[in-house]
Every structure is written in structure tokens, then in C-alpha cells.
Amino acid sequence: MVLTADDVKKIAYLARLGIDHQDIESYARDLSNMLDLMKQMGETDTGGVLPMAHPMDQIQRLRVDDVTETNNRDNFQKIAPLVEDGLYLVPKVIE
């Protein structure tokens, strides 16, 4: 797919990007090359490939999900200016 200078200007406008006029042609060429690569990747047969979470097929070490902190909510809410039903009340700042 070949992008034109007008296409690049439209994309830059939609993305709210400011680009220099002398760079538009190089952006068009680079973006066209990226789209061609995406097309090639889309045409690749991946029917026998299993999905992976990581390209290096590594596993993540997980820690035991144990509670290590004590519950200090009551202590914190005692010194809070406004509390109701276990929730902190704050002044309205946006109308």
C-alpha cells in the first residue's frame, strides 16, 4: 500500500501531530513500508503455531498471595476529617 502526502497530512491531523513539510515524503515512505510489512505478516500461515504469552516461552515466578500488612483502616479513619460507612468523604471540586 502506498500512502500519499495527503494521506500523511490527514493521519497527522487525526493524531494531532505537527510534522514539518519537508518530512512528509519520508513519513509517507516509512508508513507505506510498515503497512506492507503488516500485509506480509497477515499473509503468513500461522495455523500450526500455538499462542504464547512471551516470545522466549518463559514462565513468571509468582509469590504466595499472603497478607503481610495489618489492617489500619480504623486507625486512619479516626483521624480523617469526614468518614461515613467506612468511606472517606471529600469536598466536591468539579461541578
Average pLDDT rating: 91
Radius of gyration: 27 Å
Largest sheet report: 2 strands, antiparallel
Could you tell me how far the N terminus lies from the C terminus, measured between alpha carbons in angstroms?
Answer: 48 Å
> What percentage of the residues does DSSP assign to strands (E)?
under 5%
Broad shape:
flat
Strand order of the largest sheet: 1-2
Order of helices and strands: HHHEE
Structural class: mainly alpha
Task: Please report the number of helical segments.
Answer: 3
Regions with little confidence, pLDDT below 50 for 5+ residues:
none
Q: Give the total of beta strands.
A: 2
Question: How would you describe what is shown here?
Answer:
The protein is mainly alpha-helical. It has a domain at 5-42. 37% of the residues lie in helices and 4% in strands. It has 3 helices and 2 strands; from the N terminus they run H-H-H-E-E. Strands 1-2 form a two-stranded antiparallel ribbon. Strand 1 and strand 2 (87-88) form a beta hairpin. The longest helix is centred in the middle third of the chain and has 19 residues, at 24-42. It is flat and about 65 Å long.
